[in-house]
Amino acid sequence: DRQGQPFLCVKVRDTGVGMSAEFLDRLFDPFLQESSGQKRRFEGSGLGLAIARRYTELLGGRILVDSKKDKGSVFRIELPAHD
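Structure (tokenized):
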């Protein structure tokens, strides 16, 4: 448990392209994508993670991420457990 409080943990793992350490510093910024321009391989608005973090924080939780370029990523969402 976190600081003596029970919590729910959800992990999401992928084996995709991963992210660089430099990008991880700004990962949750709205509209941000690591690759841009015409050679971008993946579509999206860049809002998903920003929204997920905001909702998680509103619920009193946090999102942690571990990612290695060309190896994939693991996202860990921790939410307080309530009775």
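DSSP finds two helices and three strands in the chain. The CA atoms of residues 18 and 71 lie 5 Å apart.
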